[in-house]
Predict the 3D structure of the following.
Amino acid sequence: MASFLLLQSSPALLATWHGLSARVLTNGPSAFEATHGKDLWSYVATNPALSKLFNESMACDARRVVPEIINGCPGLLDGLDSLVDVGGGNGTTMRLLVKACDWIRGINFDLPHVVSDAPACVRVEHVGGDMFDSVPNADAAFLMVIISLCIYLFRGRLATGYGGG
Ligand SMILES: *[C@@H]1O[C@H](CO)[C@@H](O)[C@H](O)[C@H]1NC(C)=O
Ligand SMILES: *[C@@H]1O[C@H](CO)[C@@H](O)[C@H](O)[C@H]1NC(C)=O
């Protein structure tokens, strides 16, 4: 949990809270972009210390949350043949999910430079792309939107193209 708390309390992330009301009242850029002039991913790409903290934070959150989902929601993934993790990084979440649910074929989806570094894993296919263009087809999509601490799990058939919902 340490890296997660350190990331959330880092000056770069704390500064964005000052832009929250402006973000809620207008339709402008995200609070992070309004504060730093670029999105979170571009920002961490140019800041190695924050990038390391960000990566560790994502992985530590996955290690904490995924067992909770698997143990706390039995049967949730029953009947699914394939599952895509959107923004899955190096595949930490998908690794844990296919280990717990050995009938699932996992697709770990993230930007091409991210998945190009992801270590190979049995029953996990790494796919590079941009989620704002399209998302690989699977029976369900898993999105862990860490920054806002929300977890969405969509069941049902996904069409390629995530913008429509
Ligand atoms: C964090 O992960 C991204 C994506 O895998 C990678 O490009 C970047 O180099 C990592 N950052 C550090 C500091 O290792
Ligand atoms: C994935 O990245 C996280 C954060 O950098 C790291 O803790 C974890 O060991 C990596 N997993 C693999 C399988 O390389």
Q: What stands out?
A: Confidence is low (pLDDT under 50) at residues 146-165. The pocket of 2-acetamido-2-deoxy-beta-D-glucopyranose (ligand 1) is lined by residues 48, 51-52, 55, 89-90, 113-114, 117 (CB under 6 Å). Strands lie at 82-86, 105-110, 124-128, 140-145, 150-154.
